[in-house]
Every structure is written in structure tokens, then in C-alpha cells.
Design brief:
Elements: H1 3-13, H2 16-20, H3 26-40, H4 46-77
Helix pairs in contact: 1-4, 3-4
Amino acid sequence: MRAYEEVAEFIATRSPRDVAEFKPSPESRQRVRELLEREKTTGVSDEERRELEDYEHLELLMNLAKARARQLLAHEQSGH
């Protein structure tokens, strides 16, 4: 499953609490670490660079989704 598909599936099927607590799979985290390390040392291919950019975009998306989820949870807890 590609990273975008993983995140889209997660967001589409979860509660605000699940979104707020989301962490990428160990496989995705490991892949990002590998790509970042190779980028610093031996370099990455154009395809791998695009993959890194995808991960960066997904991180931004999830940060926004988490912020919104936290707002929804705070709203629920305040009783409104």
C-alpha cells in the first residue's frame, strides 16, 4: 500500500481520537529513515526524491488532520 493510500484509508475510517493519536506504520517510518540517510550520504534517485516529497506532504496533511481532531475532541470535552 502506498503512503497516500495508507493515510487516506486511516483518515476516512477513524474517529477524531484515532486521528489525533495516529503514527505511521513501522515500515513507513523505516523507509523514511532509510531514504533520508541515503539522501545525506550516497544520494537518492529522482523517484526516491519524489517519494520523500510524498512523505513530507503526508506529514503536513496528518499534522493538519491531528490539529483538527484535537479541536473536535476539545469541543466534545467542553460539552458543546
